[in-house]
Amino acid sequence: MASDEGSVRVDSWIWSVRLTKTRSLAASACRAGHVRVNGERVKPAQAVRAGDEVRLRHAGRDRVVVVSRIVRKRVGAPVAAECYVDNSPPPPPREQTVPIGLRDRGAGRPTKRDRREMERLRGL
Fold this sequence. Notes:
Layout: E1 8-9, H1 10-16, H2 23-31, E2 35-37, E3 40-41, E4 47-48, E5 53-58, E6 61-67, H3 77-81, E7 84-86, H4 112-122
Antiparallel strand pairs: 1-4, 2-3, 2-5, 5-6, 6-7
GO biological process, one term: cellular response to heat
GO molecular function, one term: single-stranded RNA binding
Domain RNA-binding S4: 8-75
């Protein structure tokens, strides 16, 4: 189940320790440049070893982890937590997060004008 020697693909390791829900999401994050190993942008097939620092930007949050153990297969959450040291900054408090334009329940589908106003508020 777990192995402490050698190396493994970074996308597979990110998925195995449950930092992303699927391996394809991990590979997509690597291709988009959201994954860095020891400060370098990496491709999904990049090898990761024990002691490497992995930075992942996923779901609007930065995760900074140091690999402490290599796993090749997806493991349970308690075992996954032992495979890395989490040095991530704490998430911002809920009060500081900007609320996304939420519509009242039962208000129906937004019109084109409503959609454009929501995009303007979000800065898109």
